[in-house]
Specification:
disordered N terminus; 8 helices; alpha/beta; about 290 residues; globular
């Protein structure tokens, strides 16, 4: 399948989910192309030097919420505690005629003294080449969310908010990470939507009836169901982890889920060597009718 696992992480990265997620938030490919390709990116931090307890304590309030909030917490930690930048505003509400018309994610001053407005997002879409009610071929697990819809929201509404309300902003950028999931039976799209980076990170998706392909393509595997907000870095765990499922257990769980719900489920397929299990693929499992629901 398509997903390429991360390079072998260092030992302390292995031990901390928060640190692996921080590394993914900073170093994974952007989901979108940027207008300013000549922008000089900051140095990748020394992850061995990061204070893991401090990071985990910082993220604790964010971990109780949706994945976008957790991802934002990781980005804020990077800006505040690694790059040590001046944060000007966070979740700045914008008012016109005493009405809230929108919110700016973050304003900050970078190392060069440039005032930045960032909109921060983490998104996951499944590629489906057929026609469907969304009008898109890049559809989220929630079918109301599509790649094109999110890009219009970011670039036509959210980023322009600072032009009139914060004229001191010199650079506006959408900081978007995530993955696109491809079915192995579908040809790759001949043309990507505008703003979707060709170097985006990739995973796979299957219909429930195709679940047996997982073992057929990789041999005997173990599986983890990825519960939000744990959707970011590649899974890595001990073979004794009680969350691990064998194939029969996974199949039972999936059949039970799709009797009552339609939303796809994200899983990691893991190969276990000795006492350690490492992700070899990230896979959405979808109902037979998805995205026609």
């Amino acid at each position: 399948m398509n997903h390429q696992p991360e390079n072998q992480p260092s030992q302390n990265v292995l031990q901390s989910q928060a640190l692996r997620d921080l590394k993914w938030a900073i170093t994974s490919p952007s989901l979108i192309t940027q207008a300013s390709e000549d922008e000089i990116l900051p140095e990748v931090p020394d992850f061995q030097a990061i204070d893991v307890p401090h990071l985990e304590n910082y993220l604790a309030p964010y971990s109780r919420f949706r994945i976008g909030t957790y991802f934002e917490g990781l980005v804020l930690y990077w800006l505040e505690h690694i790059r040590r930048l001046k944060i000007i505003a966070r979740h700045q509400q914008i008012f016109e005629a005493n009405q809230t018309i929108g919110e700016i994610d973050i304003l900050f001053e970078d190392e060069a003294g440039v005032v930045n407005h960032w909109e921060i997002a983490v998104k996951f879409y499944l590629y489906d080449p057929g026609d469907n009610a969304t009008g898109s071929h890049f559809v989220g697990p929630n079918v109301k969310d599509t790649f094109e819809k999110k890009m219009r929201r970011l670039f036509d509404f959210q980023l322009p908010l600072s032009k009139t309300h914060f004229p001191e902003v010199n650079r506006r950028q959408a900081f978007v990470k995530g993955m696109i999931f491809y079915h192995t039976d579908h040809n790759s799209p001949k043309q990507l939507p505008e703003k979707l980076s060709p170097t985006h990170e990739r995973g796979s998706w299957l219909h429930l009836s195709e679940l047996s392909r997982l073992n057929a393509q990789h041999g005997e595997l173990w599986f983890l169901i990825r519960e939000k907000p744990d959707w970011l870095s590649a899974s890595l765990c001990s073979k004794s982890d009680d969350r691990l499922l064998n194939f029969n257990e996974l199949q039972q769980h999936m059949e039970s889920h799709f009797q009552h719900k339609q939303r796809p489920i994200l899983i990691s397929a893991l190969n276990c060597q000795e006492s350690k299990c490492s992700e070899v693929d990230r896979v959405f499992i979808a109902s037979e009718s998805w995205p026609q629901i």
